Amino acid sequence: MTSDDVKNLLIPAFADATIEVAGEGAKFDISMVSEAFAGKRAVARQQMVYAVLNEQIASGDIHAVTMTLKTPDELG
After folding, report:
1. Which region holds residue 25: left if phi is over 0, alpha if psi is between -120 and 50, else beta?
2. For the chain, which domains are there?
3. Which among 14, 50, 51, 59 is placed 20 to 30 Å from 43, CA to CA?
4. What Gene3D superfamilies does the record point to (predicted)?
């Protein structure tokens, strides 16, 4: 799995987001800025992303994910 593969999985679920994915193999760093995260705590934001990637995580295609998830207002 490539970083582009991961990004392409996330785009439909977070259409308004700015998404950056780095990494290769089964370990990825995901940085996203989206209004969808507004009013949500960090765990809820992560759960939103994991919901999209769950199939790939369960299959082992993705083993480790580090996430930075913010709203546009949090960019300061």
Report:
1. left
2. 3-75 (3.30.300.90)
3. 59
4. BolA-like
Q: What pLDDT sits at residue 75?
A: 87
| Regions of the chain where pLDDT drops below 70 | none
- Find out whether 32 and 67 touch, Cβ atoms under 8 Å: yes
Cα distances (Å, whole numbers) of residue 52 to 30, 49, 57, 76? 13, 5, 10, 27
Amino acid at 17: A
Furthest-apart CA atoms within the chain: distance in Å: 38
* Both structure tokens of 48: 């939103």
> What integer pLDDT is reported at residue 25 of this predicted model?
87
